[in-house]
What does this fold into?
Amino acid sequence: MNAADQDISREQRIWQVVASIPPGKVASYGQVAQLAGLGRGARLVGRTLHNLPRGTRLPWHRVINAAGRISLPAESQGHDLQKQRLEEEGVLFNVSGKINLSRFGWKP
DNA sequence: GATATGACCGCAA
DNA sequence: TTTGCGGCCATAT
It folds into this structure.
């Protein structure tokens, strides 16, 4: 048993939670962390998603920060891709680039 | 081992 | 609204 095994368990839980997010809905990092049993390990969720391979099947674009905003830099490609995918699923952005969590927030 | 940083969160002022 | 503080976990120095 090494550190990698622990990491895999946590990553697996995070992946499971992220994969459970229905289309057209979004969840915050804290939400995912809580459901994955990580408590307040929101940072771990962010790190894990950042480490995802390019060809992943995971709907990582449905994970945003608590402010209803995309954490990635606006000039980053991931930001653009995330926004586009969300709009494809019907998630609308505010004029400020924010998402109405009361409407699109995932409620398990 | 200690310190700093990071796709962060929640609360208080 | 913004700012500051503590908390979580992994990685780098």
